[in-house]
Amino acid sequence: MLSGFMTDTWIVATAVAVVAGVVGFFTVVRGSSFVAHAIPVGAFAGAAGASLIGVSTLVGLGVFGAGGAVAIALLGRRSRHDVATALALVVMLGLGALFLGMSTEYAPEIYALLFGEVLGIGANEVGPTLALASLSLLVIAAVYRPLLVSSVLEVSSRSRTRRSSAMELVFLLVVAIVTTMAVPVVGTLLIFTLMVAPAGAARLLADRPHRAILLSVAIAVVTVWISIAASYLTNWPVGFFVGVGGAVAYALARIGSSWIGPHARLDRATS
Predict the structure, then answer these.
(1) Angle value at C-alpha 142, between 141 and 147, nearest 5 degrees
(2) Which of 118-127, 199-208, 257-266 bottoms out in mean pLDDT, i.e. has the lowest?
(3) Topology adopted by domain 4-269
(4) Which one of 13-17, 215-219, 264-268 scores highest in mean pLDDT?
C-alpha cells in the first residue's frame, strides 16, 4: 500500500481531494450541486470525441468542460439556472453518444473515465494533475472574497448583476478545470461525490467560511485516503468506498449538527 507504484496514487488522489473540498464549498453554498454533476458527465463526451480523432482525452475533457461552463453561464442569464444546466448537459451527452457511435469500438480508457483509475495512476499523470490543481486554487484565492459574497447573494436574492454573472462564469470555469484534472483519476461519478458530500458535511458543522473550507478539505482527504486503503486491501472498487464514505460523513455531520446547534449564516460571516 505504501510501495513505490502507489506513491503517485496517494499524491494525485490527495491533490484531487484538496481541490474538490475547496471548490465543493462554493458548490454547496451556491446551490450548484447539479452543475457539479452536469459538467463532469458532459465533459465525458469530450473525452469520447478526443479518442475518436486520436488526441489526448485531457484535451477533450478541457474543451467540453469549458464549453459547458460557458453555455450554462450564458443560458442562465435568461432562464432558470437548472434549466440551463440541463440543456447544456443533454447537448453534450447527445454529442457523446454520436462520438461513441462513430467509434469502431468502445475504448476501455473512455469507459474508465466514468469510474476512474485511482489505483492505476501513472507517473505521467502527476504533473498535469498538480498543475491543474494549483491553477484551480490560485483562481479561487484570487477571487475568494467576491466569489463568496456572490455565492451568498445567489441564495438570498434572485437578482443577477453583471458582477455576479462574472463570478458565476469564473466559478463554472473552475469547475471545468477541476473536471479536467479529476475525471481521469476518480471518474465523472466520483468527483460529484467529492465535491458535494464533504462540503455539505462541513457546512453543517462550521460557522465561518474558512473553517468550513478547511473542514471540507479534511473530510475529502480522509475519505479518499480511507477509500484507497480499503480498495487496496479488499480489491473492491474504490468508487464504492468513496460513495459510502461521503454518505457516512454527511450523515454523521447531520447528527453532529443537532448537538452543536444551528450554525451562523454565511452572509453574516462575510460582513
Answers:
(1) 80
(2) 257-266
(3) ABC transporter involved in vitamin B12 uptake, BtuC (1.10.3470)
(4) 215-219
85 vs 94, 109, 119, 224, 246, CA distance in Å?
14, 26, 32, 28, 24
The identity of residue 32, as a single letter, is S
What span, in angstroms and rounded, lies between the C-alpha atoms of 247 and 198? 9
C-alpha cell at 129: 494533475
* Cα-to-chain-centroid distance, residue 91: 20
Task: For the chain, give the percent of residues with pLDDT over 90.
Answer: 25
Sign of CA dihedral 128, 130, 133, 134: negative
237 vs 228: CA distance, rounded Å: 9
**Residue 208, by phi and psi: left (phi above 0), alpha (psi -120 to 50) or beta?**
beta
**Integer CA distances (angstroms), 3 to 102, 116, 151, in order:** 41, 21, 42
pTM of the model: 0.83
Q: Which residues contact 41 (CB under 8 A, 6 or more apart)?
A: 89, 92, 93, 188, 189
Q: What is the mean pLDDT of residues 189-208?
A: 88
Query: Which residue bears the cell 484531487?
Result: 16
Judged against a pLDDT cut of 60, whether residue 62 lies above it is answered with: yes
Q: Which residues make Cβ contacts (< 8 Å) with residue 69, sequence separation at least 6?
A: 39, 169, 172, 173, 175, 176
* Closest CA relative to residue 183, chosen from 31, 25, 12: 12
Residue 44 reports pLDDT greater than 60: yes
